[in-house]
Design goal:
Chain lengths: 134, 117
């Protein structure tokens, strides 16, 4: 995604802004990890969809890279903040949080992007990730 | 006189369609076709935006007008629609969390419509 950090900052949830205020040194890593998750999903699925397999994979892979890059506790805090918007539809939030939890555990392997991507894809194919739109 | 001119320019910029739509062929917006044919969306987008002022819309009204979102832009609560079957090209309607209204219309990546044409 081509938008700058400043464009994206404006869209953050209040909880995400609060996290960034207390961890300003993480902003570049977090924004970069989103872009990497987005392009890895495009590479595997051809697009970034919603509530489907590509969505499940993206959340898993994104949270896995975050654990490796900012640590488990911070990744858990930030991903919770990401899903904290009251506008987020309940069923979709449940799906995203589940896939994030799986990704957080996968991230503990501290593997490189290629391996994290494969483990998340394997988790998807073995039914460990939640998908609303089959 | 300078200040009103600046304000007018800012208003025109704020209310206008995304710049990257200007060279697109225009076809009348049809909800059924929009929902059933992803590749036709790019040609209907300009007409859709001329019929519906985005700043007056919210998440619910966008979904009512365009159907269930099938794309992704930063957050699930920002309706996003794919403009291409394969590869990245979406139109997204980020919501201002304070007002609940659509803040802007984003085409991402910015030059993707030109690449489809």
């Amino acid at each position: 995604m081509a938008s700058s950090i400043y464009d994206k900052y404006d869209h953050l949830t209040d909880d995400e802004k609060s996290y960034i205020k207390s961890h300003p040194h993480h902003i570049t890593t977090i924004m970069k990890s989103r872009d990497i998750a987005f392009s890895e999903t495009t590479k595997r699925f051809g697009y970034n969809g919603r509530n489907d397999k590509s969505d499940a994979f993206r959340h898993c892979f994104w949270s896995a890279t975050l654990v490796r890059d900012i640590g488990f506790k911070n990744a858990l805090e930030f991903t919770n903040a990401h899903e904290s918007s009251p506008l987020n539809i309940h069923e979709e939030k449940i799906m995203d949080l589940h896939n994030i939890r799986v990704g957080l555990r996968i991230g503990l392997s501290m593997s490189d992007n290629k391996k994290l991507s494969k483990i998340c894809n394997d988790a998807l194919n073995s039914g460990k990730l939640k998908v609303i739109k089959k | 006189m300078k200040i009103p001119l600046i304000l007018l320019s800012l208003t025109l910029i704020a209310c206008s369609e995304p710049r990257n739509l200007s060279s697109t062929t225009v076809v009348s917006f049809d909800k059924k076709i929009w929902q059933s044919n992803i590749t036709s969306r790019k040609t209907m987008l300009k007409d859709f935006l001329s019929q519906h002022k985005f700043s007056e819309q919210n998440n619910t009204s966008i979904i009512k007008l365009l159907g269930k979102p099938d794309g992704y832009y930063l957050y699930d609560e920002f309706p996003a629609y794919r403009l291409k079957e394969k590869g990245e090209c979406i139109v997204a309607f980020p919501i201002d969390r304070k007002t609940g209204k659509v803040k802007e219309v984003i085409i991402e990546p910015a030059n993707c419509i030109a690449q489809i044409n």
